[in-house]
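pls design
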């Protein structure tokens, strides 16, 4: 074939219309953003609401956290909550009061993990945008929830500065309060599965989106109280219904981390296939460091105790400080 013939074939090939990837992508995004995709369908949401819980994710929302004004304690509490219930917490994200970022994080985690919580952004002011952001991301309307409003009226009291406030008279204060009970609702699903009242002393609901995204307040007392109230609903969906799925065993050792590193590497390779993780943690300012075993097979882990005590020249303890000789010991840590 001559060079000109080959060039002609190439020109003919390049002149063919290209697939409309942009149109396909836009259509996919459109279906996803309106809740029309397979993953966001009512059937998929029902499945997420009932499936066994193995993994979890946490989204902390608030400019005040990213700006250093507020110290986040909710993620630490949630990490302990997951550990005690045997859920594997896979990710914690802190994001600002940004509609696009809130929606993207909620959808991504809903797809990736069995149980997701958000914290923050559901108050009465203009920067509390969690409900509307997640509603938009899943293509859901915000609807005034009458039961939540009834509970709010019964259980909340106007602030001392609101002497003239009335639930029956339109006002900016009333509008602000109503923001907190306008919830994302999928009208094709049962309301009781989407709005949970887990504590009779609180009017605040847990809004559940797409079957597994649970929207909680950022106030630590309310966050922890609502999680505690949610626990009975989660237990039947855990691998261990008693909520005792993960165990941690602590060892106190006087040896530096570098001294035990080789042994711990060998140990980790040995126990890893059985789902047990080995950890090593320096304790700055103390004479003793900590080695941990974390896993679900308590009997197997307990069988390793004598071996590990010998391997790290240490002892099993209930608390890290149990083996400390005194509070006045040398402050040089056994690290390095």
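designed seq:
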């Amino acid at each position: 074939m001559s060079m000109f013939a080959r060039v002609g074939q190439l020109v003919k090939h390049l002149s063919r219309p290209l697939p409309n990837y942009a149109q396909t992508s836009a259509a996919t995004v459109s279906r996803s953003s309106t809740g029309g995709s397979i993953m966001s369908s009512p059937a998929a949401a029902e499945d997420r609401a009932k499936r066994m819980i193995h993994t979890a994710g946490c989204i902390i929302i608030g400019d005040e956290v990213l700006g250093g004004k507020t110290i986040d304690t909710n993620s630490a509490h949630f990490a302990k909550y997951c550990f005690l219930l045997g859920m594997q917490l896979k990710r914690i994200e802190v994001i600002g009061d940004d509609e696009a970022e809130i929606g993207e994080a909620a959808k991504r985690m809903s797809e990736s993990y069995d149980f997701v919580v958000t914290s923050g952004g559901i108050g009465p002011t203009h920067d509390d945008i969690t409900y509307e952001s997640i509603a938009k991301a899943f293509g859901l309307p915000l609807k005034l929830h009458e039961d939540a409003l009834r509970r709010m009226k019964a259980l909340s009291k106007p602030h001392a500065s609101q002497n003239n406030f009335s639930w029956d008279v339109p006002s900016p204060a009333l509008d602000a309060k109503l923001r907190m009970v306008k919830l994302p609702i999928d009208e094709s699903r049962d309301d009781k599965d989407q709005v949970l009242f887990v504590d009779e002393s609180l009017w605040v609901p847990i809004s559940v989106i797409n079957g597994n995204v649970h929207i909680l307040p950022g106030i630590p007392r309310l966050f922890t109280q609502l999680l505690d109230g949610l626990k009975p609903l989660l237990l039947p969906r855990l691998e261990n219904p008693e909520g005792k799925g993960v165990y941690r065993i602590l060892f106190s050792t006087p040896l530096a981390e570098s001294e035990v590193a080789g042994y711990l590497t060998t140990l980790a390779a040995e126990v890893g296939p059985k789902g047990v993780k080995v950890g090593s943690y320096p304790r700055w300012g103390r004479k003793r460091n900590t080695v941990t075993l974390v896993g679900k097979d308590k009997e197997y882990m307990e069988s390793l105790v004598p071996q590990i005590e010998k391997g790290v020249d240490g002892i099993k303890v209930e608390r890290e400080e149990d083996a400390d000789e005194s509070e006045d010991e040398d402050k040089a840590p056994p690290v390095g």
